[in-house]
Specification:
Layout: E1 5-15, E2 19-27, E3 38-43, E4 47-55, E5 60-66, E6 80-82, E7 84-87, H1 94-106, E8 112-119, E9 129-136, E10 143-146, E11 155-161, H2 162-170, H3 177-190
Parallel strand pairs: 4-9
Antiparallel strand pairs: 1-2, 2-3, 4-5, 4-7, 5-6, 5-11, 8-9, 10-11
Length: about 190
């Protein structure tokens, strides 16, 4: 059944780095009848490109760590392991954003890119939509600090052997949802060793 709904009212509640909207709506139920009015505050979120940086020659994955305000109320053990991600600029395609963000956040240029999946990370509370890519890159030894100073980014970047990343997944060290989706896809669908 195609999604059917009627917006009764929409209000902008807040506008800052992100936006918050309130929707008053009804939607059709699975039996064809309609709900009573539903009121929901929806975080505007973002249109985002994400990229899993992978070096097939050295058999390594590049992961990053940076401060994230969203963890303040629940978690303070360590910075989260993440893959590359960034908001798509108005004049960019998702692929262009993924390639740009990979260079900005890791210092690695993308040699080859593969589109994996688009998805809604939290449709119950956000309008965000993410594009996931696999990017083949040339990894590196040691660690780097990357990021745009004008955005107050301070990103720790490091290459890990694929088997080390698999172990990190098994030991539940990776807690970032975007990274979990990317890495589970990588090990279930792409990496055949």
């Amino acid at each position: 059944m195609k999604l059917k709904y009627k917006i009764i009212n929409k209000k902008d509640l807040y506008s800052g780095f992100f936006k918050l909207k309130k929707y008053e709506f009804i939607h059709q139920k699975h039996d064809g009848s309609w709900t009573d009015q539903v009121d929901r505050e929806i975080f505007s979120g973002a249109h985002v490109s994400t990229l899993l940086p992978y070096d097939p020659v050295r058999n390594e994955i590049v992961l990053i760590k940076q401060f994230r305000a969203g963890v303040i109320s629940r978690y303070d053990d360590d910075y989260l392991y993440e893959i590359v991600a960034g908001i798509i600029d108005k004049d960019e395609s998702p692929k262009e954003t993924a390639e740009r963000e990979c260079f900005e956040e890791t210092g690695c240029r993308v040699n080859k890119i593969k589109s994996v999946q688009g998805y809604f990370p939290a449709p119950g509370s956000s309008e965000s939509y993410y594009h996931l890519f696999l990017g083949e890159i040339n990894s590196f030894e040691g660690e780097r600090i990357m990021g745009l100073e004008n955005e107050n980014e301070n990103i720790l970047v490091k290459s890990y052997k694929v088997e080390k990343v698999r172990k990190m997944l098994e030991e539940r060290e990776i807690k970032n949802g975007v990274s979990l989706i990317a890495l589970q896809w990588f090990f279930l669908e792409y990496y055949k060793n």
